[in-house]
Amino acid sequence: MRKPEGQNRGGAPRRSSGFSLIEIMVVIAVISILAGAMAPIGLQQITAARTKATRSSLRQLSNAMTGDSARGDFGYLGDMGGLPATLEDLNSAAGKPAYQIAPPGIGFGYNGPYVATLRLGTAGRFVDAWDMPFSFNRGGAQVTSLGPDRVLGNADDLSWPPAPLAIRGTLLVRVLGVPNTGDPASPLANADADVFVSLSNDGRLQEVRMVDPASGPGPWSVANLAFGHHGVRVVGRGGYAGAAQVRDVVSTRSGTAVITLTLAQP
Description:
The relative contact order is 0.14. It is built from two helices and 13 strands. The chain is 20% helix and 29% strand. The chain has helices at residues 21-66, 75-80; strands spanning 100-102, 106-108, 135-137, 142-145, 158-160, 168-178, 186-187, 193-201, 204-209, 220-226, 228-236, 246-252, 256-264.
């Protein structure tokens, strides 16, 4: 005899092999709860990764502009004698003198591109990990990302360096004279020497006469000098006229730099 449908071999009703509507609803509810709990964690991880990438980009832009002290270079500032008008100028040679080296080993002129790996947005500007252009404080060599909220001036902004950076300082040069009489060397006054400093002015080499001491022996000085490698040249005059010129290279990075050079009386 044929077994009625819906019964098993013992005659009891047969249970369907699928899930009931209630079971499906419970599974969906559990998945929704788990997804809701995991979403903030995932968002935090994305924000943390973007923040890390943006901080790296900020440091790269800063090093491109003012150099890396660990490498002993001064970036665009040292080569051109000033900061770029825009961040994108770091990678543009248009209208800039080509890089050259002059005695006693001073480099000047555009030596870029200075930024190798940063992304450009649709407007041709460097962008952060949120695809927003960086803000550039040219006066303080400071670069800022608008951060996760994409609004400038809020607490989540990211900046490097943390505070505006001084990019110019003062150079002092003391000159010792070695008399031809065999007496010990002593500081020279402005009557016996002229001192010049070589610097990059918009990428062109310029030699500037340093300010003579007001009275008595040195030092000679020049203020508002862009940080970088500079050439110093001492020429004798007066009692030291005809002395062999003395040249040296000095690096200025912050505050006041002081060097001492020696001139031998002929």
